[in-house]
């Protein structure tokens, strides 16, 4: 299936599913039920007779009647709506005008070119009236105008020129940064506009250049509770971006893969799983450099994607595209894992920050052969372990990190000095009083290795005491 074909297929699936109605759509329904007293605008000489005659014939009629009115004089349609948008100041009336225009464009996408042609004939910017509304206090007006800009930009025969495009994409990016829902209840509309824009290949690179990807990732990874629909829409934008090989090459540095794996683990929604797996598949298929593909594969392994794929396989899935992507990713990741040495696996796990009791941690042979390699790249792996001890609140991660610090000291002769220089000794010691018994045990064992020579004998004592009900039988004082 072609890139555009798959885009259309995914969007058709979305339309067929139960999609949460946005705040804008809900309020647009209320606006449509309003009635504007056009006669008062005519009497007050705020609109001309021509405008009055057109808008009263256009308002509250069937789509067929609107179509006939527009086709009989297309330029009048553009001129009158532009005039009304620029001249009418009252919020309620402007809401109504923008909703009418948005509906008219939705009925027939080719109508956006009428606005383009009208502006070109008058040597004016087609965007200026709508950009001017993006600063209004009334948020419905702001986001209804933003929707219209997106439709003109995406449905027109001519692309949006770069200066206006940058301005609009920066505006969308900044809306994503607003706290949701306290400062931006229209986040779903922002995401919808961005979905439309990211369908256009030429617009994607500009969005990347204005730091758009990292903004999306920060929203997806943030602590705020965005709903699954907004989450889906933003991942859809990431998926669109993965159709560009040059963009994919820049993604691995932006923490996209672990963020999406986390969402996959949390969400039970099939449509969310489908778009995430389609994104990961593109990250294998689209890059032109084999090194980029391998980096992406390693990042997926580090993020424990295989575990999430196993859980997905346990579900009843009817979507054939999802099943195909699931099988494809399982095959690719299995091949990548085979190419990894035990040390590669360890590096992947540490860099992922998702420590668990995988076999390498408890392997004497592994530490005997690889402890010295933790010094590589200016102690990169040790520094990550130290950072996890500083920042993590997960008992499992803290236990494994403390254990690995101890094993490094045990098998590398100069390890104690390095650990002290990195500040890890004090960090480990502070966990001697941790509320979790496993963390206390691993911290105490690590301290033994840091402070005594014959740790093997004391280590056996600790194992025996642990088996008798915890680590209370051995205290920090026993290390002296």
TrEMBL record:
InterPro entries: ARM-like, ARM-type_fold, ATPase_V1-cplx_hsu, ATPase_V1-cplx_hsu_C, ATPase_V1-cplx_hsu_C_sf. Residues 340-455 form the ATPase V1 complex subunit H C-terminal domain. Keywords: Hydrogen ion transport, Ion transport, Transport. The keyword Ion transport applies. SUPFAM superfamilies: ARM repeat. Transmembrane segments: none annotated. The keyword Phosphoprotein does not apply. It comes from the Eukaryota. GO terms for cellular component: vacuolar proton-transporting V-type ATPase, V1 domain. One of its GO terms (molecular function) is proton-transporting ATPase activity, rotational mechanism. Pfam families: V-ATPase_H_C, V-ATPase_H_N. V-ATPase is a heteromultimeric enzyme made up of two complexes: the ATP-hydrolytic V1 complex and the proton translocation V0 complex. Belongs to the V-ATPase H subunit family. Subunit of the V1 complex of vacuolar(H+)-ATPase (V-ATPase), a multisubunit enzyme composed of a peripheral complex (V1) that hydrolyzes ATP and a membrane integral complex (V0) that translocates protons. V-ATPase is responsible for acidifying and maintaining the pH of intracellular compartments. This is V-type proton ATPase subunit H. It comes from Batillaria attramentaria.
């Amino acid at each position: 299936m072609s890139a555009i074909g798959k885009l259309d297929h995914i969007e058709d699936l979305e339309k067929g599913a139960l999609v949460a109605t946005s705040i804008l759509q809900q309020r647009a329904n209320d606006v449509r039920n309003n009635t504007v007293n056009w006669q008062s605008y005519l009497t007050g000489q705020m609109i001309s007779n021509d405008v009055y005659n057109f808008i009263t014939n256009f308002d509250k009629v069937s789509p067929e009647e609107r179509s006939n009115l527009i086709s009989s004089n297309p330029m009048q349609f553009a001129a009158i709506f532009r005039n009304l948008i620029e001249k009418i100041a009252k919020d309620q009336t402007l809401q109504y005008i923008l909703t009418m225009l948005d509906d008219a464009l939705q009925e027939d996408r080719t109508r956006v070119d009428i606005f383009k042609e009208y502006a070109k004939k008058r040597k004016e910017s087609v965007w200026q009236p709508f950009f001017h509304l993006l600063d209004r206090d009334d948020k419905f007006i702001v986001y209804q105008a933003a929707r219209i800009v997106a439709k003109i930009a995406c449905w027109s025969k001519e692309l949006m020129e770069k200066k206006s495009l940058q301005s609009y994409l920066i505006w969308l990016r900044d809306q994503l940064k607003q706290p949701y829902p306290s400062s931006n209840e229209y986040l779903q509309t922002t995401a919808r506009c961005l979905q439309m824009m990211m369908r256009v290949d030429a617009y994607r690179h500009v969005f990347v250049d204005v730091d758009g990807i990292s903004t999306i990732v920060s929203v997806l990874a943030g602590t705020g509770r965005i709903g699954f629909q907004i989450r889906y829409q933003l991942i859809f934008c990431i998926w669109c971006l993965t159709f560009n090989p040059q963009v994919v090459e820049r993604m691995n540095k932006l923490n996209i893969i672990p963020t999406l794996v986390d969402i996959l683990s949390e969400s039970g929604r099939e449509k969310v799983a489908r778009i995430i797996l389609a994104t990961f598949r593109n990250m294998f298929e689209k890059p032109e450099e084999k090194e980029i593909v391998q980096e992406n594969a390693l990042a997926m392994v580090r993020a424990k994607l295989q575990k999430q794929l196993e859980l997905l396989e346990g579900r009843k899935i009817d979507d054939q595209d999802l099943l195909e992507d699931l099988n494809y990713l399982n095959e690719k990741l299995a091949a990548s894992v085979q190419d990894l040495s035990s040390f590669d696996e360890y590096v992947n796990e540490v860099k992922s920050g998702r420590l668990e009791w995988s076999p390498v941690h408890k392997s004497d042979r592994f530490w005997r052969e690889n402890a010295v390699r933790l010094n590589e790249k200016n102690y990169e792996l040790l520094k990550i372990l130290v950072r996890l001890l500083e920042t993590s609140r997960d008992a499992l991660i803290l236990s494994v990190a403390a254990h690995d610090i101890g094993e490094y000291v045990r098998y590398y002769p100069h390890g104690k000095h390095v650990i002290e220089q990195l500040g890890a000794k004090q960090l480990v010691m502070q966990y001697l009083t941790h509320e979790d018994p496993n963390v206390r045990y691993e911290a105490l064992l690590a301290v033994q290795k840091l402070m005594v020579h014959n740790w093997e004998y004391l280590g056996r004592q600790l194992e025996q005491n642990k088996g008798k009900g915890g680590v209370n039988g051995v205290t920090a004082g026993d290390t002296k």
